[in-house]
Design goal:
Radius of gyration of chain B: 20 Å
Oligomer: heterodimer
Helix content of chain B: 25-40%
Order of helices and strands of chain B: EHEEHEEHEEHEEH
Distance between the termini of chain A: 66 Å
Structural class of chain A: alpha/beta
Shape of chain B: elongated
Helix content of chain A: 25-40%
Largest sheet of chain A: 6 strands, parallel
Number of strands of chain B: 9
Largest sheet of chain B: 5 strands, antiparallel
Strand content of chain A: 15-25%
Number of strands of chain A: 20
Structural class of chain B: alpha+beta
Distance between the termini of chain B: 36 Å
Number of helices of chain B: 5
Largest interface: A-B, 29 and 29 residues
Shape of chain A: globular
Chain lengths: 573, 179
Amino acid sequence: MKRTGAQIIWEVLAHEGVDVVFGYPGGAIMPAYDALLGYGIHHVLVRHEQGAAHMADGYARASGKVGVAIATSGPGATNLVTGIATAMLDSSPIVCITGQVPSSLIGTDAFQETDITGVTLPITKHNYLVTRVEDIAPAMREAFKVARSGRPGPVLVDITKDAQQASTDFVWDERPVRLPGHRPESRPPRTDLARAVELIDAAERPLILTGHGVIRAGAAEHLMELVKKTGIPVASTLLGLGGFPATHPLSLGMMGMHGEAWVNAAIQEADLLIAAGMRFDDRVTGNLRTYALKAKKIHLEIDPSEINKNVKVDVPLVGDVRETIAALLPQVAQRTRAPWLARIHELKGDSAVRDIQTLPHDGHLYAAHVIHDLWRLTEGNALVVTDVGQHQMWAAQYYKHDRARSLITSGGLGTMGFALPAAIGARFARPDDDIWVIVGDGGFQMTACELSTLAQENKKVNVAIINNGFLGMVRQWQEMFYEGRYSATPLKSPDFVMLAQAHGLDALRVTKREEIPSAVAFARGAAGTCVIDFRVEQEDSVYPMVPAGADLGHMIRRPAARNVLVEDGESEE
Amino acid sequence: MTMSLPTMHTFIAYVDDQPGVLNRVVSLFRRRAYNIESLTVGRTDRDGISRITLVMVADDDQALRIAANLYKLVNVIRVEDITHAASVSRDLALVKVRADAETRAQVLQICEVFRARVVDVGSHALMVEITGTQDKLDGLVDVLRPFGILEMVRTGAIAMTRGAGERELPALIGDDVAA
């Protein structure tokens, strides 16, 4: 069959099972957009290409499938960059298709020409510049394979306009894609497994550190089996939340910079760390020189370049996390670890007393209350999509996730503006879930234009704006480490209720804790998107906290008594 | 993290012979601010496959991660750190050295000792070609320097392990790697 390059793009997408793409048209991608009309793939028109990349990312994280973003050359392509880097750092499989100027004009600084394969080289798993129509199908098929296999990640395919316009014979090649240079390991060698089993059986104070890889690999059930058999408690990275049920008695909670103090203390006392699908990020380890010095380390990891990168490990188990746990399961001994669990209980100490949830209600609205109540009111069943900053940490601390893929957040890159578009992408993957965006007033305004995408698509997500009138996390650092000099952190925002209403969306404002249940009920009951502007305490901080680069064991704790500075003008209403 | 002392490491990589592949390889070093001592690229006996020899200073941990990161590149088919393997390494240099009627005989004699070939003779200069280990080339350059080196170019090291090799490239490419 003769097909144009533009048609081949959609043919391949259809064969790859893609039913929705997120994009924005422009000159160099117009042939592809023209051909789109002949195919049954739904196109979501975004308001900014960054949103398209985040939507593809959110779709990928919510579904486990590959998300697709599409943009034109030049500014269209460069606008994708933040979204691509976000997907790269969090190992999210997306394919970005960009139009490029005609091949005869490449390198001439033609109108809307950028070297997008050059720009994205370090932030993609791989990318392609396609200048001939015959190469479109092979490049796109490889792109999907590379994006989803091994450690997933973003792949960009840049296709010149003339390649889209030219025609060639197109027959779908049923054979699998062959890529000699791309062979992810699937299972670690037997000898390494045996050494790991030995360490696990011998350990008296072991911890499992679960990460995003466990969720990506679909290994949550295997992990549960491993925990049941070995009795080893589990700590989670931010992106690992949900990989092991938060309400399980052996779930300790989150580790790291804003992790629970007792979790970090337990890591420092542990004699064995079993790290699964996590990469010892600096937000997790604190000072590497003092990190878990008493512990041997086993590292279950798909990406060999992560081994010994940050933390020197005793037994690397390079391979698919699910298969690796499956291989360990029959070999490890059944046992309980009562003394260790008792010790961890001791480490909890007065943490519960210091928790803001147990402090007497002082009439102020705290973000932690909003998120805790949201968790309770949604019975822990919501798909939570967060932005980046204080609210993100509070969401990680106070929304308890019991299922994999129930939290979507930008962990590695920490991309403000991620939440709203990522949630829109997630909506297309999970049409029936109760989706809640938790976002700060700063991050919301970075991609608030996508409200109009939601309105056009007539899709529902609930948006909880944690509005404290500051760029809160930076403000917190300024309070703690810059002697309270609030440089460029006070934030004046538009009336979010009116903004949402201007888009034809429902919206309300909440200023008191008592109003939370009815507001959440209203939002959940509304047919379309509902935006809630939660006016929370302005100068609250996230506790506990390991300052950047400090020892994991030394955390700044929430003051036990009066916990928050109360300044004037805390509430406008 | 325990660290071995940084030493010269030699990596061999088989890569797809395509535009942009060298850029991908070099970019790994650029972003980590590692300095490359030498880099050579050339075709192999297999169509579409090039071979890279890359020399850099690294400790053993760094070297492992460099190899792992190179291997992650889709266009890199195989990577080996041959630093600790028995291998042969060769560098080629062309040296244009000042040599007039008075000094020519001396320069020629030195070249003979180093088994260097004279490839061009002018009235005031000689062009000398030498292959060998980097040490040998350095040695020749040192003794020629007093005569006046007008111009010099070196290829950088190419290297190959001794013996028949356990996994030859054809077998590797022939693997059914489809997953």
